[in-house]
Amino acid sequence: MRNIVARKKLSSIQIIVFILIFLCGTFLRFVDFDDPPLDFHPARQLHSALIARSYFLKDDGNLPGKSADYQHEAEMRGSQEPRIEPPIMERLAAWGYKIVGDADLRVPRAMSIVFWLIGGIGLFRLCRRFLGITGSLVGFGFFLLFPYTIFASRSFQPDPLMVALMIWSECVGRMGFSSGGWTGDTDRRLDGDRDFGQAGVRFPVGVGFCVLHFFVFGSATKNKES
């Protein structure tokens, strides 16, 4: 049985430390923001970039300054890329491309950064239940400032979104629903039944992926038929 640490309000110094960690983590991820995605698993990022650009072009997108033949070939190349995972990030990036009017790789990079930062906030909330404020700040700082996570959280891959979903689904499982669907012994049930605890993580993530899968593949199939 894990010990649940009583929550205390953050002091002014702790709030300042939290904000500084968050701002430093955000700033470091936007350094060299315009660089091409070659700093971390470039082949994997370019794979997602080709797919996202293909979705963008299928949705009547346009690449400024590029000929019709070039855009047709770009669409075909993206369509021929194998689907390693459900292309959720690629579809989100394509929607972002439509907003900015171009297949700008800064769009998925910004999305990945935002997802990672949201996951960091969830991790801090989760850690406070077990580690107290000081331990939570240490974990929060490690999550945002460790060099590997800085590069990984900028990459055009599904990992930042996956990590954020897993953290927040665990938060939901631990906190329970305020509407009364869960009772006060939620933590005892989760700790006492490991399988149920794992389901608490997997079920919300699975539902979310099923919904996104429907929209992603449904939209792709619709475009292909048209």
How many H/I helices?
10
N- to C-terminal distance: 56 Å
CA radius of gyration is 20 Å
- Biggest sheet record: none
Decide which structural class fits the backbone.
mainly alpha
Described by the principal axes of the CA atoms, the overall outline is: elongated
**Total separate domains:** 1
Please bin the fraction of helical residues: over 70%
Order of helices and strands: HHHHHHHHHH
Low-pLDDT stretches are: 177-184, 186-205, 219-226
Q: What fraction of residues sit in β-strands?
A: under 5%
Question: What is the overall pLDDT average?
Answer: 80
Q: Write down how many β-strands occur, each being a DSSP E stretch of 2 or more residues.
A: 0
